[in-house]
Design goal:
Blueprint: E1 2-7, H1 13-26, E2 31-35, H2 40-46, H3 54-61, E3 63-66, H4 80-87, E4 92-98, E5 111-117, E6 127-131, E7 134-137, H5 143-159, E8 164-169, H6 177-189, E9 196-201, H7 202-211, E10 218-221, H8 223-236, E11 244-248, E12 253-257, H9 274-286, H10 290-305, H11 320-329, H12 332-335
Parallel strand pairs: 1-2, 1-3, 3-12, 5-10, 8-9, 8-10
Antiparallel strand pairs: 4-5, 4-11, 6-7, 11-12
The chain binds 1,4-dihydronicotinamide adenine dinucleotide (NAI).
1,4-dihydronicotinamide adenine dinucleotide (NAI) binds at residues 12, 68-71, 81, 240-241, 256, 259-265, 271-272, 275, 313.
Amino acid sequence: MKNITLIPGDGIGPEIIDSIKTITHHLSIPINWEIYNAGSSFYNSNSKIFEDGLIENISKNKVVLKGPTETPIGNGFKSINVLLRKEFNTFANVRPIKSISGIKTKYENIDLIIVRENTEDLYSGIEYMISKDISQSIKVITREASEKICKYAFETAVKEGRKKVTAVHKANIMKLSDGLFLDSFRKIASMYPQISADEKIVDNMCMQLVINPNQFDVIVAPNLYGDIISDLCAGLIGGLGLSPSANIGDDIRIYEAVHGSAPDIAGQNISNPSAIILSTCMMLFDLGFEKESASIKNALFKTLENSDFHTKDIGGKLNRLEFTNKLISFETVKKSL
Ligand code: NAI
C-alpha cells in the first residue's frame, strides 16, 4: 500500500478529488490517501492555512496529490502553493500541453512541455511599501536555480525524444535578472549539442504561441512567464480543465491541475476533472503504476473523444459526476490492467 498525502483544497478542489478517489477505488489501486486540509476555507474556520502535521506528512510520504487552493487577492495570507514549493524545493513545474482528440480548438497536434522554474523570480514574496504610495517587489533570479531548471528542461528533452528547447525571457529590459537566466540557459544548452536551443522574448513568445504553437517543443521559463504562458497554452488545447502538472523536487513531488479553485463554478458539480485525472496519471506513472496510469488515460481519452460526454466548460452537458461515471464505465479501464 502506498501512502500519499492528499490535499482536497478549496472551491472545486474537493469535487475533482472525489473523482480521483472514485477512479482509483474502481481500479483497486493500492493507495492509502492521508488527507490534510489546507486553503482558504480551512483558514476561515481555523485561522491557519493548513492542518497541523501536513509538512511532516509530506516529508514522510514524499508524494502529494493536491487540489487547488484559494489565495486572497491583494491582501490576506500568502499562497500555500508558493509556500509548499519553496519548503520542499520543488524546483520544476512540468506542464505537458497536448491536443486531445474530440476537443475542437483552432489548433491541431499541439504537443509541447512547459518547464517552469518554481521557487524564485517575483514569487519570492519579497514585497514592501516604501511609502504610502510606492510599493516594491523584488525579482530574485539565481544562477543555481536557473542552471538547475535549464538542465532539467534539456534532460526532459533527451528523455522524451524532443528536438528543441526554447527559453523565455525579457533580458532586453531586465538585463541583470533575466540576463542571468539567459546566460545560464546558454551555458547548459552548450552541453546538449544534439538539442536545438532557441530563445524568445516573452511578448513575442505569447504571439508566436497563438499564431503557430506547433513550432515549440520544450519551453523553459522563469516562474512568472512560465505561469502566464501555461494558462495561455491550456487555452490552446481547450481550457484549464484539461491541463495537468507536476511540481518536481529532488525527492518530493506535488501533483496538481494547472487551474485554480474556480470559485465561479464551485459547489455546482459542473467542473471538469480531466486536468486532475491527467495529473494523477503522471503521479501513478512515476510511482511505477504504469499500467494503471495508461488505463485511466485511455478511458479518459475515450470519454473526451465523444462530445456527448463532455462537461460544460468544453461545450458539453454532463456534470462532473456523470463524466466520472462515464469514464469508469468503459470496459477498457479494468481490462487493460
Ligand atoms: P481558475 O483557474 O480557478 O479559473 C479560471 C477560469 O477557468 C474560471 O472561469 C473557472 O471556472 C475555469 N476553470 C478552471 N478550472 C476548471 C475546471 N476544472 N473545470 C471547468 N472550469 C474550470 O483561476 P482564477 O479564477 O484566476 O483563480 C481562482 C483562485 O484559484 C485564486 O484564489 C487563485 O489564487 C487560485 N489558484 C490556485 C492554484 C493552485 O492551487 N494550484 C492555481 C491557480 C489559481
